[in-house]
Amino acid sequence: MQYRGAMQKMQAGKGPKKKNVMKRLMEKRAADSHVGIALVLLLLVVLQTLVLGFDYDSFGHWFNSWFRNWINILRNNAGVGIVSLGMTFVIITGGIDLAVGSTLVATGAVIMTLIDTGAKGVLGAAGMTGVPAYAITIVAALALGYLLGTGIGLLITRGRIAPFIATLGAMKVFRSVTQHFMQGYNPRVPRDFLQISNLQVGGLMFMPIVYWAVIALILYFVSKRTTFGRQVIAVGSNERAAQLSGVNVNRVKTRTYSLMGILVAIASVVQVARIGSMDYANAGSGMEMDAIAAAVVGGTSMAGGRGTILGTVLGMLIIAVMNNLLNLFGVPPFLREAFKGLIVVMAVLLQRKQRA
């Protein structure tokens, strides 16, 4: 009711004053949403701590076990966390991307083909190894991710295909083509390349968490302080009004999918370096669901126009802790997906109630 009253008062304003009131209202709404999400996360963390128990010789042993458990949770979810940041931008514009898992597989196949230490390794056959080869591989993966994401964006903007249909088609094409060319081929990843994700610092392997945190900070700045970030919100809020205001709507939408492709490529590099292989049939399967769930639980509106990077990070943490709790409780893997589906539905229903 307080938001509705503020909106009614705002209607009487004009010009910059009206715009400032709208901005303050949106910021207050986002802040309130973040507090609520943070409280839910805190409750889950407390519950997880209780489930893990306190049967240890000393506080130091307990804290060490608790801390390592958190490192494992964050590390295992860093890849999806990176993808969920891009999904936030896509959903804010009113779109969706179902092809992230297949894009992950396609870029992963290119990574492994380039750095393969066997006879079929592309860079190895050219006499390139070590850091130069790894740098070229990462750049190639990012370039492919950008091209695939841009292609999807162009299908949506220039081809005027609904995002759901365009990304559904891309999902099938990317994975099928990758499986066709990679069947019977088992590339070997160099041990040094694995250090990208498995480098130990103080006995802990937390580099994927660092990548996730750095990218989140960068995209937080982009969303809050850049013209592109403001245009993404404008397009999702009212596409027609944004266009009349001089915003190139098609360009903004295409760029969000290009950004999505780059972030998926980064997640692919992290995953290949973390496990040293990739299952082309199943890798990335369900990633789109996890990324969408993290964004929606974090307050991103499926109707577009609203969402924050901070909210998505908190949403991803809630999904990660919930997965760990379900595992600790011994819930079968298939039923865990049901819990995710219920959480997404409940989050959307809550958003509608808040808008009412």
What does this structure look like?
- This protein has 356 residues and is mostly helical.
- The protein has a single domain, classed as ABC transporter involved in vitamin B12 uptake, BtuC, CATH 1.10.3470.
- 76% of the residues lie in helices and 0% in strands.
- It contains 15 helices and no strands.
- It has helices at residues 2-11, 15-52, 59-92, 100-115, 122-125, 130-157, 163-182, 195-198, 207-225, 227-237, 239-244, 249-275, 287-297, 309-328, 333-355.
- Helix 1 packs antiparallel against helix 2, helix 4 (100-115) crosses helix 12 (249-275) and helix 6 packs antiparallel against helix 12.
- The longest helix has 38 residues, at 15-52.
- It starts with a helix and ends with a helix.
Question: What topology does this entry show?
Answer:
Elements: H1 2-11, H2 15-52, H3 59-92, H4 100-115, H5 122-125, H6 130-157, H7 163-182, H8 195-198, H9 207-225, H10 227-237, H11 239-244, H12 249-275, H13 287-297, H14 309-328, H15 333-355
Helix pairs in contact: 1-2, 2-14, 3-9, 3-12, 3-13, 3-14, 4-6, 4-7, 4-12, 6-7, 6-12, 9-10, 10-12, 13-14, 13-15
Which structural class is indicated by helix and strand composition? mainly alpha
Low-confidence stretches: 1-16
Q: From the alpha carbons, calculate the radius of gyration and give it in angstroms.
A: 22 Å
Multimerization state: single chain
Q: CATH class, anyone?
A: Mainly Alpha
Mean pLDDT: 86
Order of helices and strands: HHHHHHHHHHHHHHH
Number of domains: 1
Strand count: 0
